[in-house]
Design a protein that fits this description.
Number of helices: 2
Strand content: 15-25%
Order of helices and strands: HEEEEH
Oligomer: single chain
Structural class: alpha+beta
Radius of gyration: 21 Å
Largest sheet: 4 strands, antiparallel
Distance between the termini: 61 Å
Helix content: 25-40%
Shape: elongated
Bound molecules: zinc ion
Strand order of the largest sheet: 2-1-4-3
Number of domains: 1
């Protein structure tokens, strides 16, 4: 498919802007747990069953980071400060860290066994 001409891009942008936006109350907040240990709150329409992003720009680090977990926050539980994660998201991140450490431990134990034997 050839690249779109500037005129076509302008036409498509105009068309997209003409679509009605969803009312504010139809949006929910997803709290994303990032590989750097920070969290980010992102809005999405309530019709989304999940928040699909493998990486996002971390505002704290100023770098692109991986998304470990995404949890939809209850509507009345949206904190102003995105650096105060809900326990469940933090638990998911810690669980993932424990899994990685266990894997590393098993590898180290196997390596030690080969040295001892
Ligand atoms: Zn970060």
């Amino acid at each position: 498919m050839p690249p779109l001409s500037p005129a076509k891009v302008t036409e498509i942008a105009k068309l997209l802007r003409s679509f009605p936006e969803h009312p504010e109350h139809e949006y929910v907040t997803w709290r994303l747990s990032l590989t750097c240990g920070h969290y980010a709150d992102c809005r999405a329409h309530q019709s989304n069953q999940s928040y699909n992003a493998s990486t996002i720009d971390c505002a704290e680090c100023g770098a692109i980071r991986g998304v470990i977990a995404a949890k939809q926050l209850p509507r009345n539980d949206v904190a102003e400060d995105s650096q105060s994660p809900s326990n469940e998201v933090e638990i998911a991140a810690v669980d993932k860290e424990i899994q990685a450490l266990r894997k590393k431990l098993r590898a180290a134990e196997r390596r030690r066994k080969t040295l001892v034997d």
